[in-house]
Amino acid sequence: MTTIRLTMAQALARAMAAQLCVENGQTVPVFAGVWAIFGHGNVAGFGEALHSVRDRLPTFRGHNEQAMAHAAIAYAKAKRCQRMMAVTTSIGPGATNLVTAAALAHVNRLPVLLLPGDVFATRRPDPVLQQIENESDATVSANDCLRPVSRYFDRITRPEQLIPAFARAVQVLMDPGARGPVTLALCQDVQTEAYEYPSHMFEPRIWTQRRPPPDAGELGESVRLLREAKRPLVIAGGGVLYSRAEAALLAFCRAHGVPMCETQAGKSSLPWSEDLNMGAIGVTGTQAANALAAEADVILAVGTRLADFTTGSWALFGDPTRHLIGLNVTAFDAGKHRAQPLAADALVGLESLGAALAQWRAPSDWTARAVASRTAWLSVAAAYTAASDTALPTDAQVLGAVQRQAQPNDIVMSAAGGLPGEMHKLWLAEEPGGYHMEYGFSTMGYEIAGGLGVKLAEPGREVFVLLGDGSYLMMNSEIATSVMMGLKLTIVVLDNGGFGCINRLQKATGGAAFNNLLADAVHEVLPEIDIAGHARALGALAEKVAGLAALEAALVRARAQTRTCVLVIDTDPQTGTDAGGAWWDVAVPEVSDRDGMELIRARYLAARAAQRIGN
Fold it and tell me: Has residue 392 got a pLDDT over 60?
């Protein structure tokens, strides 16, 4: 066996650069780059190693470790999980800044390789700067906080440990049923230690997408349930897009007359113009989708975790005899809530179901009713997004303005607050991947950094980042990175003076308006925050607009620019789209001295009675 003498960090960088995949007929690197903020825990070791492979594995500099990880995760999501990025940090706050992003990736089943520096394996200089000491366990470091939010975790305390650890890391990252965040904690002294690594570790390896077929027994039972269905419904989750199964889904629904609805991650699986697309389901769902879900007797859930927003906290599916089929590449998700599991790749699973069902079709009256419901909903939704000359437009009206200026190939993205609910219901996505929403972890601050990752993945498409002033103030530094890297974003900030979404939820559950809007928080001076001025200071082109017409004109100007543009508009914090939607289980206090709380608690208990736990 031939070997190459390298430091552990050099071996890691070279091995990463050797991982390849095929994209659009071209062989390309699996790892599109490494986001890095260097410190004493990674600059001398991994930093030197990255410099030596910078022609094959580029290094990008961000301004916040969490934001860099958000960008990396958004890149992987936009690339349908076939390509990804890595993030390296120092050992202290840089490493702990990764935890929120790792949790986001874990919840959403998205691959990212996290490479935080770690303490000295030899312990000679302990405690080093930024080291966390545990008096009862000397093996613990700050990186241990990444264990519960990693699909695979390893600490490299010897240079030869990298050989099996890296192989396992890439296996997890590329496995559709296991993927998620992987953490390799790199002890800073070990990064610089040399070892005779086997040369095969650095030979090019081409990874292909694994597509496990369904088990014959599970397939047969799923076909039986569908053949007996009178009111079948498909729920499309993110797994449809990650499997590139949107064409198979469209063919299945059309061939069998089955209406389809979308989760946040699954939105854009089918074009909005498709008659069988009922749109969003669940708490942020459309009237069309939720009315069908309430009566469906067989629900085929494809590539979804069936989280509470999708299921209306498990109170949405009203037929007590209904059956659930879980088509999912992950067996854990396929069998949730006593579902008939169909553990398989979404594309292969849909094709197998379609072939086995042959000429079977859902009852024509059910299909016709679905199409009519969809038409009615689109009319209702159009009224919410229509132009208006109101002084403070709603989020829905701002969405309408952006939609009117968007083109079919554009990408719109967001994450937290009130916008995901409005966008899930109201945005009309035409092309796959044109809707990018992080709502599994609902992470404020993902938006701008995530937009950067999306633009890296899709440089030829216009990327619209929509967010509130709360998210903007929480994390905005990657505006400067987007300008620095020449990655143009169009950022629309809806300024409602605080956390308007939670303020509405607070009042709906009987609470007083308190600590959410800036006006309701403790303050001596209510600040006049100049978001546009701040964005200009970060290098962006920016303006504040008054009204929807001015916003649309500004969007036209922004499209013509080559630099990131930030458009700020004041919006109404009190008004959301009240049409559509389903109940969400947010517990209401059992006792309170507030007037009216008893009635709100009684309504809560009445709604909770519809929940079906475990059946």
Answer: yes
Region 443-454 average pLDDT = 97
58 and 77 assigned to the same domain: yes
The HSE-up count of residue 189 (CA atoms within 13 Å, CB side) is: 11
Rounded Cα gap, residues 342 and 326, in angstroms:
6
For residue 291, the domain's CATH number is 3.40.50.1220
Which of 170, 185, 207 is at the close of a domain? Answer: 207
Residues forming beta bridges with residue 233, ordered by sequence position: 299
- CA angle at 581 for the pair 346 and 423, rounded to the nearest 5°: 70
Tokens of 139: 């093996």
Say whether both 318 and 405 belong to one domain.
no
Dump pLDDT digits (tens) for 318-344.
999 999 999 999 999 999 989 999 999
Q: What is the dihedral of CA 300, 302, 307, 310, to 10 degrees?
A: -60
d(CA 501, CA 577): 12
Is 431 found in the same domain as 368?
no
Total tally of structural domains belonging to the chain: 3
Could you read off the pLDDT of 256-269 as tens digits, one per residue? 999 999 999 999 99
pTM: 0.96
3-state DSSP helix/strand/coil % of the chain, to nearest 5: 40, 20, 40
